[in-house]
Sequence to fold (353 residues):
Amino acid sequence: MLEKLAQIEKEALESLAAVEDEAALESWRVANIGRSSPVMNVFSQMGGLSKEERPLVGQRANQVKVAIEAAFAEKAAAIKDAALQKSLTGEKLDVTLPGRAFHHGRLHPATQNLRRVLAILAEMGFQVYTSRDVESDEYNFQLLNIPPHHPAREMQDTFYIDTSATDEAEKQVLRTHTSPGQIRAMRQFSAENPDNPPPIRIALPGMCYRFEQITARSEVQFYQVEGLVVGENITLGDLKGTLSEFARRMFGRQAKTRFRADHFPFTEPSAEMDVECFVCGGSGCPVCKKSGWLEILGCGMVHPTVLQNGGYDPARYSGFAFGMGPERQLMLRHKINDIRYIWGNDIRFLEQF
Ligand code: DAH
Fold:
C-alpha cells in the first residue's frame, strides 16, 4: 500500500509537470484530487487494512494528498501569472496617442446670436425685460394703436388660441411681435411708481408666432428683440445715435447705417434702419440683392397714444422703440438662404456653429 502511494504521488506530480493551461489543469485536478482519484480511493480502502497498517497508511496517504494539493495550487498560480504576462505584452498601450475628442454640446446658433444682441444692449445700458408669450388682443394690437379691422393686422397673421371671449379685446393670441411688452413694461415701471422711476431702458427678447405658410423665407415662430426707451427729452437724435452705435458694436466699427422712413401704427415718425451690406461692403451682391444695404430693424418715436396707454403723459414724456429679428441677422451673417434650417433641428446644420 505504501509503495502504491509513492507511485500515485510520483505519477501525479509527473503528469502535472506537463499541464500548461487552465483547461488541462482542471481535468488533471479531477483525475488526481477528485472524489474518485487514486489517493481518495486509498482512503476508501482503509477499512480492509489491519490495525497496525491503518495508521501508517493513513498518515502516508494524508501526506501524499497534501503534497499533490500543494503542487496543484502552485501550478494554478503559475498558469494565472503566465496568462497575465501574456495579456500585458499582447496589449500595447501607446501613451503618446492623442486622446479621443469629447463631443461638446453647445448653444443653438439662434441663442448664441440672441445673447450677443442682448450683451451689446446691456453694455449700452439696457435692462433685459421679459414678457408673456400668450397675449390678449388688447395688448398685442389695440393698446399699440392697432384697432380691430386695422390693415396692419393683415401683415401679422395671428394664432388665436381662445376666441370664446365676446369682447374682442379679451381674445387670446400668441404674440405676433414683442411690442405688447412695451405696454406691460410702461405700466409696471409707471411714471408714478417711486421704486422704478423713468427713464425706462429695456431690451425685450422673446419668441413670436405667426400663422403663416412655412417657406424658405417665413417661419411660424422666430425671436424678436424689442427695445424701449422712455423718459423726459428723449429725441429722434437719441434713437439714431443709439441704433447707429448698436450697429457698430454688432457688425463692426466701420458699419454704416441709414434710416428710411416707414410706417408702424405704434410709432410716429417710424423708420427702418439699414446697415451697409457686410458681405460685399456695399458694392452689391446677392445677399443684399445688389442694393448694398441690409434691412436690420424697425424703429420710431413712441406714438403719443401708446405712451398714454402705458400710463405716461405724452406732454411730458417721450420715447423711442425698435424691433429686430435676430435670426434674420444670423442668416445674413452666415449666408443661410433657408429659414427652415434654424428650427429644423438638423444636427449637420447645428454642428457648424
Ligand atoms: N413690431 C414690429 C414687427 O413685428 C417691429 C417693430 C417696428 C417694433 C418698429 C418696434 C418699432 O418697436 O418701433 O414688425
